[in-house]
Amino acid sequence: MATYVIVGAGLAGAKAAQTLREEGSDDEIILIGAETERPYERPPLSKEYLLGKKEREKIFVHGATWYADNNIDLRTGLRATGLDLDRHVVRLADGSRQPYHKLLIATGATPRRLPGPALYLRNVEDSEALKARIAEGGRVIVVGAGWIGLETAAAARKAGCDVTVVEPEPTPLYQPLGPELGEVFAALHRHHGVDLRLGTGAAEITETGVRLSSGERLTADLVVVGIGAAPEIGLAADAGLDVGSGILTDASLRTSHPDVYAAGDVAEAFHPLYGRRVRVEHWANALNSGPVAARAMLGQDVAYDRIPYFYTDQYDLGMEFSGDIQGYDEIVYRGSVPDREFVAYWLREGKVVAGMNVNVWDVVSEIQQLIRSGVTVDPKELATDR
What we know:
Number of domains: 3
Radius of gyration: 22 Å
């Protein structure tokens, strides 16, 4: 009997374990997680759960008895501390050693931190602490205008807080969306009363607020930092696996060692469509890459070629994004940008490389088909409502 070990009991790890069973494996499956909770989904932590719209039990990937019912050995509150690739062994924080035949690393990412007193949003305890604090009202400063920062700002405004967002880039979401669509989110938050401080960073966080890089001091009852996350590659790097911005894998999510795989936030995987490695931190990547890694571990000929996809909900704006804007030279809009009901297409040399639908639904498949096709499009036709 083979032993499949999965290090990282998040969404990617849980879906990998599920897939191993669904594909007919009756081998030993061990799922090891550093958190004390069983695997759960992270998007609700900054969306429905933070807003009090989703019950705690609804955030979990599987029911409380699912792992035992499916003969999956779930070990929570246990951190992997090292790998012996030659001996096929995982060293654990309790001093034990777990042998494996095939290993999946799905250790996720951890928030980048700043010195000083602040809250962060990564796990369920963080979300609960933040929900309790914003319920008290008061003045909140959010450092970082990425997805987590903006969703936190929206939740704090809905709770009645005075909110200021500090961001060194010229617009929110400058890196993933570019300045044009970043302005859409800037307008959205200003419309809802958020004070955006753009082009300036947080030089110091204190008990009373934030000193900006411009020298200005802002007072606050609470500071929340959302400046991105760093993949947990230490386990792989210390063991000698090839790493870059994540754990380097081929299209089947196999690492530089033939019996070790990586999935989710931590994997920097070769993407057949783009012809290069990409690392994606969003929910859909964890949801879909875990099962691909599991099938590869079972010896199936598979490739992870999903179009990068993510979504957000802020105030009355719902959005889905597909693709990668890298190298874009034109943006085409269909619908009404001022009314925040439109589809945006990013083009490079006349071909669609990314698309975002804002308060327009059931068009993701169409957008992703355009991206995959690689066909040259007529921008005027693309902008025409159909």
